[in-house]
Amino acid sequence: MHIRSPVKPMLAATIDHIPPPRSCPGGCRYEPKFDGFRAVALVAEDGAVHLSSRRRTRFNEAFPEIVAAVAEQLAPGTVVDGEIVRWAADGSLDFGALQRRHVAGRRRAELARTEPCHYVVFDVLESDGVDLRPRPLRERRTVLEALLGAAPPHARVVLTPQTSDAAEAELWFEVFAARGIEGLVVKDADGRYLEGRRGWRKVKRRTTAEAIIGGVTGTRQAPETLILGRYDTGGRLRVVARTTPLPPAARTSLADLLRHAGPEHPWPAELPAGFAGGVYGAHPPIRYLRTEPEIVVEMSADAAVEHGRWRHAVRFLRVRRDLEPSDVRLFGDPT
C-alpha cells in the first residue's frame, strides 16, 4: 500500500453562496455537508481496519460497528474519507448521539447496538494498490461508485450523493436542512486530493436570530467574544451561543453599553466548552466576564442546533436597541 498510516484529510474553506458550475476549473461537483465526525478509514493489506479522526486519533473503540462494516464492505488495500453520522428515528441527524460515544466508556458497545451509526463516504484515496490522491476527483468518484454504488439499503457504509447540476444542489440546500444537513461542499471535478489543504469549499445554511448578552471574553471595555443567552419558560437565563471574535467597531460600541453583573447573575464563573460551542470535555472551561443580561443582539448562525444551543460559533451582526430581553424568543427555539 502507498498509505500505511492515518492521513490529514482534505479540508474546505467557507464561502457565503453556492457557486455556479463554471467557477470550478474542471466544473463543480456538489455534495451534502453532513453534520458528524470526519473520519478516514484505512483497510490494511491484512484486512485490519484503522479508523481515525480529522486529527488522526483512533476511532476504533468509539465506533466498533463502523469498523466491522468497513471490514465487511471494503477490500484490503483501500483508504476512504467520509463522515460518521447518526440518524435519529425521524430521519434527522443526531449529533448528540455521536458526542455520547466519546464519553460512554464501558457503554460504547451497548450504544453501538442501541444507537448504531453510519459512515457516509465521499472520497477514496487508495484502492487495489493504486494511489488515487493525484488523480482528479471525477476519476476517484468513478472508483468510489464501483466500491460502494451497489451497497444494499441496510449497509452501514454508504456513498454520499453528488451532482454537477447547480439547480439540484440548490434544491438539496433547501430541502435537506430540515434533516440536519448543514449545507453543501463544492469540489473541482479535476481537483486532486490535497492532504490537510483547504482545496474544497463549503457553504452553510445560515439564519438570523436574537439573543441576550450574558457575558464576554476579554474585558468589558474591550470584549473579544460574546456569550449569549435566552430565558427558559421558568425565567432562568440559559447559555445558547458564543460569537466569533468581534470586529473592532463592535468592540468599541459594546464597551459603552455593557455593565458588570451583580451577584444574582445565574451563570457560573467558568463555562464548560460544550456550553458555548464545541464538544463537552474536549477543551478547557471558558473563562469569561459576566455582564448584566440587558442588551439584545442579532446574530447569524448555521443550522447546527442541539438542545437549544448553537454548537458552532455565531456571528455578531448588530445591537438591537429596539428590543428588550423579554422580546427574545425562549430557550429551545432556534428561530
Automatic annotation (TrEMBL):
<feature type="domain" description="ATP-dependent DNA ligase family profile">
    <location>
        <begin position="119"/>
        <end position="236"/>
    </location>
</feature>
<dbReference type="InterPro" id="IPR012310">
    <property type="entry name" value="DNA_ligase_ATP-dep_cent"/>
</dbReference>
<dbReference type="GO" id="GO:0006310">
    <property type="term" value="P:DNA recombination"/>
</dbReference>
<dbReference type="Pfam" id="PF01068">
    <property type="entry name" value="DNA_ligase_A_M"/>
</dbReference>
<dbReference type="InterPro" id="IPR012340">
    <property type="entry name" value="NA-bd_OB-fold"/>
</dbReference>
<comment type="similarity">
    <text>Belongs to the ATP-dependent DNA ligase family.</text>
</comment>
<dbReference type="GO" id="GO:0005524">
    <property type="term" value="F:ATP binding"/>
</dbReference>
<keyword id="KW-0436">Ligase</keyword>
<dbReference type="GO" id="GO:0006281">
    <property type="term" value="P:DNA repair"/>
</dbReference>
<dbReference type="InterPro" id="IPR044117">
    <property type="entry name" value="OBF_LigC-like"/>
</dbReference>
<dbReference type="GO" id="GO:0003910">
    <property type="term" value="F:DNA ligase (ATP) activity"/>
</dbReference>
<protein>
    <submittedName>
        <fullName>ATP-dependent DNA ligase</fullName>
    </submittedName>
</protein>
<dbReference type="InterPro" id="IPR050191">
    <property type="entry name" value="ATP-dep_DNA_ligase"/>
</dbReference>
